[in-house]
Amino acid sequence: MRPIIEFCVSNLGHGTEALKNKLEQNPDYDVVEYSCLGNCSQCRFEPFAMVNGEIIATDSAEELEAAIETKIKELEAWDNLEID
């Protein structure tokens, strides 16, 4: 299953635009940018993204990248369990 990584355009000022652009280069990911993800109070204060509908928030874009990668590995592990 390809992970869906969603970004809010209003959150790109927190340094997530470069991360979004980087993740878009990975053909194994579906990266989507929306005008709003409905998390306005969070969006104004910290970098965040949604991975398969789950909010991932951190203190920096660098931490967000690591957290997204960790979440994707967790999802892949669950997918492998379901197949076995």
Instruction: List the domain count as a whole number.
Output: 1
Report the sheet-strand fraction: 15-25%
Order of helices and strands: EHEHEEH
Structural class, from helix and strand content?
A: alpha+beta
Radius of gyration: 13 Å
What characterizes the major β-sheet? Answer: 4 strands, mixed
Give the mean pLDDT.
Answer: 91
Order of the strands making up the biggest sheet: 2-1-3-4
Number of DSSP strands?
Answer: 4
What does this structure look like?
By secondary structure, this protein is α+β, with helices and mostly antiparallel strands. The protein has one domain (4-76). Helix content is 43%, strand content 21%. The protein is built from three helices and four strands. It has a four-stranded mixed sheet, with helices on one face. Helix 1 (16-24) links the parallel strand 1 (4-8) and strand 2 (30-34). The protein is globular and about 35 Å long. The two termini are 15 Å apart.
